[in-house]
């Protein structure tokens, strides 16, 4: 039995190392002088922040960081609010076509984003939202994944709790946000992390609807910086921008990982 555990631990350590080493290499390479990038293995011969200083001088990285934060936080907040409202209606509401509507929402998850890309862009042009944050935030305010997650967790909440809240005079919105939300914190955190991560890492849609550099998100600006020639083919500068791009997601997950794991372990698709 001990030998089996040892083998399992060795395999787990090896798998963890294989996942972590690329991130470790990226961070170390970003603080290594360009001339030494091909020579170091696990530890750099010299630590330098020249790559970061060069990146700051070439692109408005802090402005794009603020833009990405505004877009990701707004999108995440909207998805949690509207997703919980729709999920509550589908879980506890009693209206005709509820199950059909749910299956349609599930079906939309199978559609590639590229199918709706052109119609969405046409709408942005007609609404005159091109080169505005509205084009980045409003189309992402609802998520089929969030609706399904909230529906499943609300179905597991006893109706007696909701009936008691109604007896006390609570309206439906107050029931959702003041009575039910405190009982589904792990689900809210899970939906928040995944939505924030998807919004933060989005590149294709911002490249289509945003052309003003002052409004560009961080992934968009970093992508244009890496492939557009401003990095002057310097790998260290590209890696420095990639490190800054990845840090918010790593920090957010590190803070909320307990809630995330608890929600993913306890959530199941109930009928």
What would your notes on this structure say?
The chain has two domains: 1-48, no CATH class; 58-266, MetI-like (MetI-like fold, Orthogonal Bundle). It has 13 helices and no strands. The longest helix is centred in the N-terminal third of the chain and has 32 residues, at 61-92. It is mainly α and 271 residues long.
User: What would you give as the CATH superfamily of the largest domain?
Assistant: MetI-like
Structural class of the secondary structure composition?
mainly alpha
Q: Could you state the order of secondary-structure elements as H and E?
A: HHHHHHHHHHHHH
Overall CATH class of the largest domain: Mainly Alpha
| Tally of helical segments | 13
CATH architecture of the largest domain: Orthogonal Bundle
* Gap between N and C termini: 40 Å
Give me the Rg, rounded.
23 Å
Question: Residue share in helices?
Answer: over 70%
Poorly predicted regions = none
Sheet with most strands? none
Q: How many strands?
A: 0
CATH topology of the largest domain: MetI-like fold
Taken together, the total number of domains comes to 2
As a percent range, the share of strand residues is under 5%
